[in-house]
Amino acid sequence: MSAGNTRANIKVGANVGIVLKNDQRSGKITQGVVKRILTKSSTHPHGIKVQLEDGQVGRVKEINN
Question: Pfam families recorded for this chain (predicted)?
Answer without folding.
Answer: DUF2196
